[in-house]
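As a warm-up, study this chain.
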Amino acid sequence: MQTIERIRRDIFGLKQSEFAEIAGTSQGTVSRWESGESCPGLDQLQQIRTAAVERGLPWDDALFFDASLPAPKSEAA
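Now compare it with the structure written out below.
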């Protein structure tokens, strides 16, 4: 499951169309985010975050980051 889908289902508990209204986009775009075809832009991420905070939902900005990705390798000086 994509991160954005977990946020929509587990935190907001909304349908794609309802979540799309919060993010200022269409249901089809949310579907593409969830399938991995595209990603939300910074404006949409900010709208989602703001909506969660305004609704008093549990929120941590780390939700937007995939913890399973390896840390970047530091370059030798």
